[in-house]
Specification:
The protein is α+β, with helices and mostly antiparallel strands. The chain has two helices and four strands, in the order βαββαβ. The protein is about 15% helix and about 20% strand.
């Protein structure tokens, strides 16, 4: 199972939530703090689409 880590100091999710939009298995959702929240980590299929497309390079997928 993957471990997904968001470095919120690098996250520009208040302006761009590409991870919420691009994830094919809905791992992320809009969070209360205007930044994305990890809600379905167990659904991650390790495609790394979120990590590659994150404009702030804030997402890391650990295997």
């Amino acid at each position: 199972m993957a471990k997904i880590v968001i470095d919120y100091s690098k996250c520009v999710g208040d302006r761009d939530k590409i991870c919420v939009e691009i994830c094919p298995v809905s791992v992320f959702r809009n969070g209360k703090s205007k930044k994305p929240a990890i809600v379905n980590e167990e659904n991650c299929i390790l495609c790394r689409t979120c990590q590659v497309n994150c404009p702030g390079q804030a997402i890391k997928i650990l295997t």
